[in-house]
Amino acid sequence: MQTLAVLSLRCPKCGGSLRGAEQDVVFWCPNCAVPCEVVGRGFVARRGAVAAAEPGATLLYLPIWAVGVRWKIRLADESRGRLLRGLPPIQWVYVTGFNLTNASYFGDPGLLYTQRGVRLEAAEASGRRVAGCVRGVEDALAYLEPHLLAIVDRRVDVTDATLLLEVGEAVLWGVPFLDEGETLRDGVLGLSYPAAALMDLDAIRAAQGAP
Ligand SMILES: [Zn+2]
């Protein structure tokens, strides 16, 4: 028989309340600046950082995982190897941690950050409230291969390719987005997303606006 675990949404370290939307599995403690992932019946602390933003704008911090990688691609037909020259030197794979509907239509921030080789710069994290994350670290790792292959595939057909992948540390970043009402503008690449594409936006606004 399955028993239902009831977990109180309090930071295991400082006891402060954690807020998030219904499907969130990682909750950010603004006091400790630590993301706490629900694992089994308790929380496991993950590495977290908050990315720098322009001052003054109305900001929402949304979660994006960054996973350090070392990788190589091998093609069965080695004569096609030259096609792989000039691939972007990707050291981090980013995985979107919030609920974006139609990411393939609006653009998936995680995939775009990976493709552009974004290096996020850490800012003062204490007191920042980052929205809860719908993907745990294991779930995020499942995106490494598809993201890398999607990027390589733009240059060369990957049907006969082998990806050799070494996985390093995972960091959950709070990435600043400018809340412009009808749209949300990514504070790193400047890309815009319709507010309606973010499923939990009302909950995120409410949680981040609150003291
Ligand atoms: Zn805490």
What does this molecule look like?
By secondary structure, this protein is α+β, with helices and mostly antiparallel strands. It has one domain (26-209). 17% of the residues lie in helices and 32% in strands. The protein is built from 5 helices and 10 strands; from the N terminus they run E-E-E-E-E-E-H-H-E-H-H-E-E-E-H. The relative contact order is 0.24. Bound molecules: zinc ion. Zinc ion is lined by residues 11, 13-14, 16, 29, 31-32. Zinc ion (ZN) binds next to loops.
Reconstruct the topology from this structure.
Elements: E1 26-29, E2 34-39, E3 42-45, E4 48-51, E5 59-75, E6 92-96, H1 103-106, H2 109-116, E7 122-123, H3 137-141, H4 144-153, E8 161-179, E9 183-186, E10 192-194, H5 201-209
Parallel strand pairs: 4-8
Antiparallel strand pairs: 1-2, 2-3, 4-7, 5-6, 5-8, 8-9, 9-10
